Amino acid sequence: MSLLRVEGLVKHFAQGGGLRGPRAVVHAIDGVSFSLAQGETLGLVGESGSGKTTLGRTVLRLAPPTAGSVVFDGTDLGTLSRPALRQMRRHMQMIFQDPVGSLNPRLTVEDIVAEPLDIHRLTTSKADRRERVSGLLRRVGLGPEALLRLPHEFSGGQRQRIGIARALASRPRFIVADEPISALDVSIQAQIVNLLGDLQAADGLAFLFISHDLKVVRHLAHRVAVMYLGQIVEQAPAAALYARPAHPYTRALLSAIPSMDPGRKRLRVLLEGDPPSPLTPPPGCRFHPRCPIYAEKKDPVCVEKMPALAPFAGASAEHVAACHFAG
Fold this sequence. Notes:
The protein is about 30% helix and about 20% strand.
């Protein structure tokens, strides 16, 4: 049984309107479905503006969905009252991209990490609270001397460790990690990735790991979902996706990864233009205006029909792609 099941999730934002005319609609997420098992990491990759962060926030119901469902541990989050949803959030937490902006600069580290403990009333006394916070800091590699200090007294990597400690405080089962290393120095990134892997192994955590860095995702994720303009265009076990990318967008992303073997040249796939606006997504396959296959074939099916996310010839049932010419 899946710990998390997302079905047909849609998130649209209204923009403008009033005296300036009808309101425009931003198609941030359009019909996304996936599942996640306990102890599993699903890597979510794609260009900036593809909808990755909005998807993470909508799964946690930090933003209400326009349509679709999110079922966590057998419970449809859309059916819960506000108090019940607040209690459910004890089991679902988020690690934010910006380790500076996500921490209250006026609170000590002890109070920051203890926020989930206080909200869910998980401690019995001040001494118990401090002991719990101290233990969390030790788990992420910080000592008790950090307790009474303020966020600005720490490096970027240390601040992200504080954010991770806060996310762990309520003993969650599922964590959305939204670009948790993109704001950090390269020398620190591997430490944070290894820390997340160790925590997952110890606690059986499920991660939705959002990133634009496919090298990191390959190291951490069990499965990978590739997102383009609000839709998942390919999803597969990590090894299968990196060995045999089926969607032309996935191939272009993977071709940009530098090869560690100087004797092996990687053929770079260059995409024309920028992603279309989510205000006016293209008809049919949303990738077709930039797609090298469409540029060569000019097949009208790419413009007239949106491809389904489905298995393709020669691949396992777990490897699905939304392309009329996948494979």
